[in-house]
Design goal:
CATH superfamily of the largest domain in chain A: Probable tRNA modification gtpase trme, domain 1
Number of strands of chain A: 19
Largest sheet of chain A: 6 strands, mixed
Largest interface: A-B, 16 and 12 residues
Distance between the termini of chain A: 36 Å
Strand order of the largest sheet of chain B: 1-2-3-9-8-5
Radius of gyration of chain B: 13 Å
Number of domains of chain A: 3
CATH class of chain B: Mainly Beta
Shape of chain B: globular
Number of helices of chain B: 3
Strand order of the largest sheet of chain A: 10-11-12-9-3-13
Number of strands of chain B: 9
Radius of gyration of chain A: 20 Å
Distance between the termini of chain B: 15 Å
CATH class of the largest domain in chain A: Alpha Beta
Structural class of chain A: alpha+beta
Number of helices of chain A: 7
Strand content of chain A: 25-35%
CATH topology of the largest domain in chain A: Gyrase A, domain 2
CATH architecture of the largest domain in chain A: 2-Layer Sandwich
Shape of chain A: globular
Largest sheet of chain B: 6 strands, antiparallel
Strand content of chain B: 25-35%
Oligomer: heterodimer
Helix content of chain A: 10-25%
Helix content of chain B: 10-25%
CATH superfamily of chain B: RNA polymerase II/Efflux pump adaptor protein, barrel-sandwich hybrid domain
Order of helices and strands of chain A: EEHEEHEEEHEEHEEEHEHHEEEEEE
């Protein structure tokens, strides 16, 4: 167990490799209750969400979710989050555990003048359990009356899971199909045990923070504090797809427009190692012997069996450029590759 | 638990001494702490090392750890099979050697721990 944003979190149960492989082959069970939940509600809630996030929440139907940035005026990230539309004027934001207090304060300050929109930190009302992997639906379906097949990717439904009232969201942070289950904390152990039981014949494997990190990196999902933060813009992070240029004004828009107009000086890319070495967060990127960026995430991936990572490099670098990484005072060659590293086979 | 024919360091290396040479590896406790080992960086053969020098690195998915020379001497061999199958360090830690050192100063071995003493170190540390 390790301390993580005020929580005691398991890094691994049976071993990161075994847990990672189980998620790719069958299914993994994650306790991600540390994630923060913030609700914004009121007649002007949509206007508030539109102002603070990069994506277009007006395109969300009730029961639908989207990935977005909680933006700073400079176009960088206060946080990254999922926006769930619970009702026409009621949104649930799922945010990083380490950022909850900062996000709540930021949102309240930024939407002061909006009118009727209240912000509530409801993190303590939700435990969050994720079932991820190709067998996820077969495992969860017997425990709920909700037709899981009817929930599309990035949609959610309310219902019972193991007789516990909750919300079933078809989302995740692993690159696999799967579900994230919002349940009351007091009932979470019961849901966890019921899932473990239902998953026995599917090799459902409890998985910790370690596998969560290697899985999300294979899927090239950004991690706040590593790949994105309050100094990296959403464009530099190669996440323009979560920027809505058509929705009107939002915090950070002017800076992002200016950056797009002027052109980027750096961008986040995926790389794989050519030399045998594992690059880790913070290792310098060297081009022509000169410091030219840094690694934001890096690991040896259990499934692809390669050393991969993400790094900020000069935007002028060709899409297949090779460069050196200073791995603890040893130079190791790496090559830019397209993201994501892993894409699940479509069924 | 910890084989009696090995000597140990408080940094969780072991050395199996035969004649004037010793094979070096890491203990079961060390591999458990590291988790799945995915990469091992070994020293060059011929390198002279002093007791306590960092002589290699061992990486698991989650951590990087240095290997320290249990004794002074010269690296006379490295286990090249670890390049392709570093996971044997997890499956057979006390049977998987990483490098062989020709001892320069056999008197240093008196500073090493026997299996009982090492077991106590692990007990206190965990």
């Amino acid at each position: 167990m390790v301390p993580f944003a005020g929580w005691d979190m398991p890094v691994e149960y049976s071993g990161i490799t075994a847990e990672h492989m189980a998620v790719r082959a069958s299914a993994g069970l994650f306790d991600v209750s540390h994630m923060g939940e913030i609700e914004v509600a009121g007649a002007d809630a949509l206007a508030a969400i539109q102002r603070i996030t990069s994506n277009d929440a007006s395109r969300l139907s009730i029961g639908q979710a989207q990935y977005a940035g909680l933006m700073m005026p400079n176009g960088a990230f206060v946080d990254d989050l999922l926006v769930y539309r619970l009702a026409a004027d009621h949104f649930l934001l799922v945010v990083n555990a380490s950022n909850v207090a900062k996000d709540v304060a930021w949102i309240r300050e930024q939407i002061k003048g909006i009118g009727d929109a209240v912000t509530v930190d409801s993190s303590s009302r939700y435990a969050l359990i994720a079932v991820q992997g190709p067998a996820a639906r077969q495992i969860v379906q017997p425990l709920t009356g909700v037709d899981l097949g009817a929930i599309k990717y990035y949609w959610f439904a309310h219902g019972e899971i193991a007789s516990v009232r909750g919300t079933i969201s078809r989302t995740g942070y692993t690159g696999e199909d799967g579900y994230e289950l919002f349940v009351p904390p007091a009932s979470a152990p019961r849901v966890w045990d019921a899932l473990l039981d239902a998953g026995k014949s599917f090799d459902l494997t409890p998985a910790g923070l370690g596998a969560r990190d290697t899985l999300r990196l294979e899927a090239a999902m950004r991690l706040y504090g590593n790949d994105i933060d309050d100094t990296t813009t959403v464009l530099e992070a190669d996440l323009e797809w979560i920027v809505s240029w058509t929705k009107g004004g939002f915090i950070g828009r002017a800076a992002l427009e200016a950056q797009k107009e002027a052109g980027l000086t750096r961008r986040l890319v995926g790389f794989e190692m050519i030399d045998r070495a594992i690059a880790r967060q913070g290792h310098p990127v060297l081009i022509g012997g000169m410091a030219a960026g840094h690694v934001t995430s890096g690991t040896q991936t259990p499934f692809l069996k390669k050393a991969i990572g993400m790094a900020y490099v000069p935007a002028s670098a060709p899409p297949d450029a090779e460069f050196d990484i200073d791995v603890r005072n040893r130079r190791a060659r790496a090559r830019i590759v397209p993201l994501p590293f892993y894409k699940r086979p479509r069924s | 638990m910890y084989p009696a024919d090995l000597k140990y360091t408080s940094d969780h290396e072991w050395i199996r001494i035969a004649g004037d040479q010793g094979q070096v590896g890491i203990t079961d406790y060390a591999q458990k702490q590291l988790g799945d080992v995915v990469y091992v960086e070994l020293p060059d053969v011929g390198r002279a090392v002093s007791q306590g020098d960092a002589i290699g690195t061992i990486e698991s998915v989650k951590a990087v750890s240095e290997i320290f020379a249990p004794v002074s001497g010269e690296i006379v061999a490295v286990n090249a099979t670890l390049k392709d199958s570093p996971e044997t360090i997890n499956s057979d830690p006390h049977g998987t050697w990483m490098m062989t050192i020709r001892l320069a100063n056999p008197a240093e071995t008196t500073k090493l721990l026997d299996s009982t003493q090492y077991a106590d170190v692990v007990k206190q540390g965990s």
